[in-house]
């Protein structure tokens, strides 16, 4: 047993392949590793390890994707004129702010989650926003974030030693204990190949709207909060020595890689 190291293992987790001896150890390993115990149907398998069972699993996965896509296409909301007008207005307002906002079809996870709105009276976006803290394996979803709010103010309830919530502060203590100058805010650059993932570094002192200008956004922004002093695998464009800084005009409009991931997610 990889949890207690005392008894002979009887079970193996389909998700992380950890061995356990009892139900208690299974629950402990799920809690410690934040594991849900559900097999990852999209996990990478090398050609040497690929078997007939893996082929059958992939075939069933594609069938599930097909059924999900067909159900989404038949959904009454897809054909609703009001929905289409609302999305068109949202994309058009974003284009006026030099933001390329792309929306996904009904049935996709990010489409269901997105609560972004535009207030015509205030001429202001209220964004659905996701904050990811990779060093603590924590994620938080914010709704109705005004576009004129600075990133520093957005992060205060999470990583500020004084103003943050005590429970959140305890969970993100790596961030709250670090100097604010060590905090970096990154956003993934969309429409790049999977083997060339890069991130833009955002300016915490500027508003959310200013940071999103010239960017491609799929449904809503996802911000990654990392620390300079801790190692991470996120490569910032223009700082890896192999590519120049991003030119927003050169971004492609292809959504293939994003849609593939979202289809798998929504299934």
Distance between the termini: 32 Å
Low-pLDDT runs of 5+ residues are 246-267
Oligomer: single chain
Mind telling me which CATH architecture of the domain at 76-227 this is? Roll
CATH topology name of the domain at 76-227, in short, is Ubiquitin-like (UB roll)
Order of helices and strands: EEHHHEHEEEHHHEEHEEH
Organism: Myiagra hebetior
Keywords: Isopeptide bond, Metal-binding, Phosphoprotein, Ribosome biogenesis, Ubl conjugation, Zinc, Zinc-finger
Function: Required for box C/D snoRNAs accumulation involved in snoRNA processing, snoRNA transport to the nucleolus and ribosome biogenesis.
Biased composition (Low complexity): 242-258
Give an overview of the whole structure:
It contains 9 helices and 10 strands. By secondary structure, it is of the alpha+beta class. It has a domain of 152 residues: Phosphatidylinositol 3-kinase Catalytic Subunit, Chain A, domain 1 (Ubiquitin-like (UB roll)), CATH 3.10.20.90. Strands 4, 5, 6, 7, 8 and 10 form a 6-stranded mixed β-sheet that branches. It has a two-stranded antiparallel ribbon with strand order 1-2. The protein has a two-stranded parallel ribbon with strand order 3-9. It is globular, with a radius of gyration of 21 Å. The protein starts with 10 loop residues before the first strand and ends with a helix. The C terminus is likely disordered.
Essential attributes:
alpha+beta, Ubiquitin-like (UB roll), 6-stranded mixed sheet, 9 helices, 10 strands
